[in-house]
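Submission sheet (multi-component)
Chains listed below:
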Amino acid sequence: MKVRLLATLRNITDCKGVELEAENLQQVIDILIDNYGKDMEDELLEDGELDETITILINGRNILYLDGLETELNSDDKVTIFPQVAGG
Amino acid sequence: MSGWMGQILRIDLDNEQVTVERLDRQLAKDYIGARGLGTKLFYDEVDPKVEPLAPENKLIFATGPLTGTAAVSGSRYNVVTKSPLTGTIAASNSGGYFPSELKYAGYDAIVFEGKAEKPVYIVIDDDQVEIKSADNLWGKTTLETDNYLRSEYSDKFKTATIGPAGENLVKFACIMNDRERAAGRSGVGAVMGSKNLKAVMVRGTQGVQVANKDKFKQVLKKSLDKIKESGVTNEGLPALGTAVLVNIVNEHGNLPTRNFQEGIFKEAEQISGESLADELLVKNKACAGCPIGCGRVSLVPDGEYEGFGEGPEYETIWAFGADCDIDNLKAITKANFICNELGLDTITMGTTIACAMEMYEDGVLTDEEIGLNLEFGNAQAMVEAVGLTGKREGIGDLLAEGSYRLAERYGKPEYSMSTKKQEYPAYDPRGSQGMGLEYATSNRGGCHVRGYMTSPEILGVPESLDPFTVEGKAEWTKIFQDLTGVVDASGICLFTTFALDAEDIYKLLESVTGAGYTEEEMMQAGERIWNLERVFNAKAGIEPDEDKLAKRLVEKPMPEGPAEGKVVDLETMLDEYYELRGWSSNGEVTEEKIAELGI
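Outcome: structure written.
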């Protein structure tokens, strides 16, 4: 599946996104931390839990209104991850 | 007085008379300043039925008690008048350095009245005020005007000026201060142009008194710490500017595309804040006393869109980009630069072109009639249309009226994506229900900065709300609108609220003014401002049935993406909203509410 990374997360990955295989979001998080190390872990996690300033969308829908990190993924799903930002 | 300077400067352009009046302390406390104070002065002095471009309309520049202080981002002023675009009250907000300088010259506000016989500019040097001929400046761009004035006088002066668009009474002309900061929306620049007032320059040497310096230092430190701790204000906005939202709103399926026909722009990445930072960004730029620095300075080094200047920010990128189906970031940036030079609101400009593009696509506008191939995606035509509009040449003369009048002229007002004749900004409310309520109820028509429901619905600040539901949205919208009234009136930037809460703002306001506010009284002042604007609009003939959205948003389901199938459930939210506001069930401000707020 496609995982898109937005805003300052790209400072860590130096790319716009990655393709990976995962059955749920927890696996996506684990793979990203495995691939990008401590910087990614610091961005995504707070005391081992998903940092509340991180937003994750599955096909544009915030996981807060799905099943959170337990949300099951299909291979054609698009996952989007970004840190807290604002503007307007 | 502390916070307030205690003086209002009145400039009668008919008779070239200048007077200074004392600011009433209770009035200042009740309406705080800037948007609130300006609206109260305007309401008390001007017939709501006034023709916006007639000499009887007044133009008020008003600062807040925190403007020019060390309070975070205390750089703002509001321009208050009756809008030629909407017929509602207009309050356009801008930062930069001009607003603080006005305080340092000793004034909380300037009231311009009447109309100069010939073009003039005003020089304010502390208590010395001169009205000078601007014959040689009429027709000049905003940058040329600023260059001339500061070379003739001193770089120590700060300027606010109109460009050719204001002179030509383009209904969405803006006032540019400090070269490229804009009091952007609702056509305040056209009112300035109608008065033959080309520019105002100001220099001051006074300080702003702070009532409780020790307390102020404490709350200031805490505020700055919060700004530094927030990922929004310490990382996202400085690194990527407001355009950081392009990808994020698009991923939610809420980025209005092709005049709100769709909610996903497939080429969003090419016009994103990330791409802007990679390709065109020269440096960040901050307003006075701002630790955030969201402003962008960009360069297109060569080619047909060559240029250098400030911007583009999110709304501008969207209006000239996704809304016009244009993925050329250089063309978008060029359109922004032209708007700055001619003095045009980028949001209404871009969305009016998008409206014209859809009318062109549907054969309502034809090649022969407009002399321009305005098909969606035509970047060259878009840039050309901007220049024509500022000068009211060719099709530009039609576009200069804004999208509503353009579409209505052809008997098709449904093409205009606007409320109360002002165009919506860059969020499709079908995927952000609260934003739909905000658009419908904003006292200046389609607008995102009266109650920015995108913040909880899309960005999760201060907490996350489901963007698809309507439960509780009326209450959130009311609180956001009232708090925004306070923020705008105090003279600090709305972006501080991504890190600061109402209590922080209250402590800043009270420590600077020493006016004896309670936090509840401060919030009530926000409610008072909101209701006063509403009462003015009613007297101007803007009835509650104008609290509506473009048909497309309430009748036509979003065609694809995360919000597929959704429309805005406005009716449900509106009923609850009127009740929470304490208004009648059909949206009229009641006598009881007026009495309660002491309007």
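Remark: Residues 25-44 of chain A form the longest helix (20 residues).
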